[in-house]
Amino acid sequence: MASTSRTPTGRGRGGRGGGSSSLPPPPSTLPLIIEEFFIVVYEDPLVKKVSTPKKFADYLDGQEPAKVYLRATDCGPHLWTVEVLFDGQCRMYLDKGWENFAIAHGVDLGCFIHFKYEGDDVLTMKVFDGTMCRKYYYSDDEDTNDESDDDVKPCIHPL
């Protein structure tokens, strides 16, 4: 009578062909993919540059952009150019241009901001207020494709 044994997955017979396990590889061998992250605004966004999570800065290691393009998810095609600073300690900051973006989108103390990296240095975002309810926007001019940050009001938060 043949003896049977269970594999770590609980299936199969022992002694046959040394097959491979159907278990996924351990997390340390998987590629690091950071497509989404969030920040909570603890300091005045009009005074302080905003720090992204360290893991996102690590993800961009070697391809550190000088600027990124921010877009509110529901605010038309308008992209906001924001300069990026890296401090050499794996920290990335949204700097010049962030203030105009924050004003136009009602970003304030206590806001929760969800970012999604779309590639090509584009980040789409959703803003949630201090009650954790999402802020929605509409654009005065959906057809404008002007990438100028001179006007600080392409999106308006309905009251």
- Secondary-structure element string: EEHEEEHEEEE
Mean pLDDT across the residues is 76
Please report the total strand number as a whole number.
9
Q: Can you say what the CATH homologous superfamily is? A: DNA-binding pseudobarrel domain
Roughly what fraction of the amino acids lie in strands? 25-35%
What is CATH's topology name? At1g16640 B3 domain
> Spans with pLDDT under 50 lasting ≥5 residues?
3-15, 142-152
Give a quick account of the main beta sheet: strands, pairing sense, barrel closure. Answer: 7 strands, mixed
Structural class given helices, strands, pairing?
A: mainly beta
InterPro entries: B3_DNA-bd (IPR003340), DNA-bd_pseudobarrel_sf (IPR015300), Plant_B3_domain (IPR050655)
Main location: nucleus
GO cellular component, one term: nucleus
Organism: Lolium multiflorum
Tags for this entry?
single chain; 159 residues; mainly beta; At1g16640 B3 domain; seven-stranded mixed β-sheet; two-stranded antiparallel sheet; 2 helices; 8% helix; disordered N terminus
Topology record:
Blueprint: E1 36-40, E2 50-51, H1 54-59, E3 67-72, E4 80-86, E5 92-94, H2 98-104, E6 112-119, E7 122-128, E8 138-139, E9 155-156
Parallel strand pairs: 3-7
Antiparallel strand pairs: 1-6, 2-5, 3-4, 4-5, 6-7, 8-9
Q: Can you give a write-up of this model?
A:
InterPro entries: B3_DNA-bd (IPR003340), DNA-bd_pseudobarrel_sf (IPR015300), Plant_B3_domain (IPR050655). Its main location: nucleus. Residues 1-26 are annotated as: Disordered. Residues 1-10 have a biased composition (Low complexity). The chain has 159 residues and is mainly β. It has a single domain (33-141, 152-156), classed as At1g16640 B3 domain, CATH 2.40.330.10. The chain has two helices and nine strands. It has a seven-stranded mixed beta sheet with strand order 1-6-7-3-4-5-2. A hairpin with a 2-residue loop joins strand 6 and strand 7.
